[in-house]
Design brief:
This protein has 7 helices and 12 strands. It is of the alpha/beta class. The chain has one domain: Glucose Oxidase, domain 1 (3-Layer(bba) Sandwich), CATH 3.50.30.40. The termini are far apart. The model has no long low-confidence stretch (mean pLDDT 93).
Length: 202
Amino acid sequence: MSSTLLEDLTAVSYPTIGHFLEDGFVSPTIQSLLANVKIAGPAVTVRIADHDAIAMNRALLALQPGDVLVVDMCGDHQHAPVGAVTAAAALAQGAAAVVVDGVATDVLELRQTGLPVFARGTSCLTTKRLYGTGSAVNVPVLVGGVEVNPGDLVLGDDNGLIVLAPEAARDILGKALASDAAEPAILARIASGEPLQSILAG
C-alpha cells in the first residue's frame, strides 16, 4: 500500500468523495465513538459468528501498523466484540482504527485510549471465548451494507465511513482534491454577498 496514497487521501474532505461516487458508503448508523477523528488505512477483516471472542484475538494478531480492523458481526448487534482490552491490543499492534458492524463496550475507556472506534452503539453484553467454527479472518465481509475485502481502503471521520478499492481511491483522488481546492472561493463569494443566482446556476 502506497503511503503517499494514504497521505493524499487524508488531505481530502471525505464528504467531497460523495459528490462523485454512490458506492462504498457505509450505513450512517455506524459512527465514531470519539469526536474529531480522521482515519485512512487498509482493512484487516474478521467475520465473527455466534459471539465468538477468539476470532477477534486472531484478527488482532493479524494487524500491521496503520491497518483498520473491520468487524462483521453477522447481524449480531447485541454482543460487543470491542472493549478496553481489545482497543489496547489494537493500539499495541499499531492499528489506525476499529470498525464494528455492531456495538462496542467500555466506551469511556475507549475514548481515553484515543483509538478511533466506529460502531452502531454501545452495550454491556460482550462476546465470549467460545472457539466457534463459523468465524474467519481476512475474508470478504459485509459491514454497514458495504462489502469489504482485505486490503480495501477504509476512510472515516465524524461524518461516517467510506470503503474503496485502492484503484477506485486513486481514480477519485484528483477530482476530490480539485473540488476541495475550489470550495473556499465559492464560500468567499457567498460571504461577500454576491447574488446566489450567479454562484449556484454555474
